Amino acid sequence: MSKTGTILSVMKPIADILMNNYTPYFIPDFQRDFVWGEKEVTELWEDIKADTDVFQKETDELEGYLLGNIVLIQDDVNNRKIVVDGQQRLTTLSLMGLALQMIIQKKIIDTEDQTPANAYSMVSDLRKSYSIVNDMGEFKDLKIQHDSGLNFGQYYRKLISGESDENDILTDADKNICAVFDKMYESIDEELNNEQLFHFFAYYKLKIMLIETTAPTEAKAFQLFEILNDRGRSLEPMDLIKNIFLKAIVTDLKSNTAKENFNENWRELINNLHIPKTPIQSSTFLKYFVVACYGDNNKAEDLYQYFKNKNLSGQEVTEFVNKMVQASRIYANIENKNYGYFLDDINMSILFEILKIKQFNPILILFYNETDDIKREILDRLTRLGAAILFSYNQTNKIEGLVPVLIRKYREANKIDKKEAIKNLYIALDEQIELFANNVKSLLAEKNHSGRNGKVNSKATSILEFIEMYFNKNEMPILKPARGKKASVEHILPQHFNFEKNHVKLIDLGFESESELKNYINRIGNLTLIAGNANSSMGNGVFEEKKAYYKMSNFVLTSTLIEPKTTEIKTGPEAQLYEMINQNEKQYGVKEKYWTKDLIDKRSHDIASLMYNILIKKI
């Protein structure tokens, strides 16, 4: 251990923590498993996008993003730093660096005729974010190393070295590592153009900060860990805002009763947002609530200054906090998937679990106390608009820009005529849906939904699940059962089709080259949903061999590949639903042995048309 006996605490950028040093970080066996997943990395990604204006600004214009603390022990004997606290952050940042390096390599170096000179140095620097290299730039070892007793270290090593596959995922920690990396890879790949990649690289290197605290001994390190994690709660933006509000109450109302009522309401607010195992960021809720009340969109970190400038009176504070407490109950239950507190409707599951869109929360907050009929109309439009934006390959910041504008217009109209205001909001939402739906129709059929290592990306999964739940009226437990494997995406023409074994040539399936096949294999027309266990059972069989599985599938999108839906009921909602399904989901290649390029093309265009008609409510 270090002989200096000094505890050092310094705020450092990723460049200094991961890129510009040759000292590995060692994860000891007393560490818990890697528990961050898609939820945590999505929140991190959204925070980074907000902080950088979606990577539109120059890095020197940005203040930067403080990700938190890491607590280390300087182990001079083994020339390493032992991680006491911060494993989740360091691991995620190393995976982010790997994902960014792979995308720069793919989009800029491998595809551009004239590669910018600094692209090579960017890749070289990013390689150092997850590995230790020699003077020739060759891999020597991992930057983050795990004790042999930590099983998930094996998968992490294989992932970093590019040698991992699905069979290597053995534990929940392995699944989490894979989910974090896949989410980062897809987000960077789908959302950033080449110019934004350059901005992100500079931001990642220089503006993502950690407070690195290094202790000389284990005893001192664990003492620090306890201080940082167990001795009281750190001051949050909400605490500072509370002080602004309390000052207004005391100054303006000059009443102990008003002060006591405020403190009681504030305690209730914080308790409402405290859900065991599912903590809710109070500042995120406040951000949404401010948009709902005023149509003003702020970063969470700017809310303190926002309220300081707004200078609400004591009476205004009282009314604002009373409304906020009421809204927080419903909001917290929605976050906890108790959707009935707002509306018992399948679109709640679609919006929050399939589309995973939270940016419409301010509009929902506006209508928390409305009738179920109005809630249903609003929710349906928000669900279709969210799908239209995502499936037209736009970023969710489109929603963040749109929502405050809609709310301000609604609130102005509501001052005159509430019914007219709601009607105008419906019209505005319909116009936006039409706008984005046209892009879906033109893009979806020919989009290659390939993610990392040629796997299907999550966007394709969301498209199929959206059709299955919204149009086919299937149920969430079918897609995502509480136990057992959830639904997975099936390649109708297998991703690893054995041409030699099946005595088939590329041209027999309509493909002129391997590259053309690769471009088609992850198109939406070659994808469907299947139960997790059935996917492995079918393996890489030809279409004719799979028909029996498809026909028996619980997924309507899959079973109707082979035969139409039938029911003995002649009238009523079920009969109408089946008739609508059969009119819009056709059978393909019923007599064909192989799934071909022409069938992929036809079904891709059919799904694109179906999606367009769903989005604009034509069917």
Structural commentary:
It contains 26 helices and 10 strands. The chain has helices spanning 14-19, 38-52, 87-109, 117-127, 152-161, 172-191, 194-206, 218-229, 237-253, 256-272, 282-294, 303-310, 314-335, 346-354, 361-366, 372-391, 397-414, 418-443, 458-471, 476-479, 514-520, 532-538, 543-551, 556-559, 573-584, 597-615, and strands spanning 8-13, 25-27, 65-75, 80-85, 131-133, 139-142, 144-146, 208-215, 488-491, 527-530. The strands form 3 sheets. It has a 6-stranded mixed sheet with strand order 1-8-3-4-2-7. The protein has a two-stranded antiparallel sheet with strand order 5-6. It is globular.
Explain the layout of strands and helices.
Blueprint: E1 8-13, H1 14-19, E2 25-27, H2 38-52, E3 65-75, E4 80-85, H3 87-109, H4 117-127, E5 131-133, E6 139-142, E7 144-146, H5 152-161, H6 172-191, H7 194-206, E8 208-215, H8 218-229, H9 237-253, H10 256-272, H11 282-294, H12 303-310, H13 314-335, H14 346-354, H15 361-366, H16 372-391, H17 397-414, H18 418-443, H19 458-471, H20 476-479, E9 488-491, H21 514-520, E10 527-530, H22 532-538, H23 543-551, H24 556-559, H25 573-584, H26 597-615
Parallel strand pairs: 2-4, 2-7, 3-8
Antiparallel strand pairs: 1-8, 3-4, 5-6, 9-10
How much strand content do the residues show?
5-15%
Helix/sheet category: alpha/beta
Number of helices: 26
Chain-averaged pLDDT? 89
- Tertiary shape: globular
Distance between the termini: 69 Å
Biggest sheet descriptor: 6 strands, mixed
Rg calculated over all Cα atoms: 27 Å
Which percent range fits the helix content?
A: 55-70%
Q: Count of DSSP E strands?
A: 10
- Uncertain segments are none
**Widest sheet: strand order?**
1-8-3-4-2-7
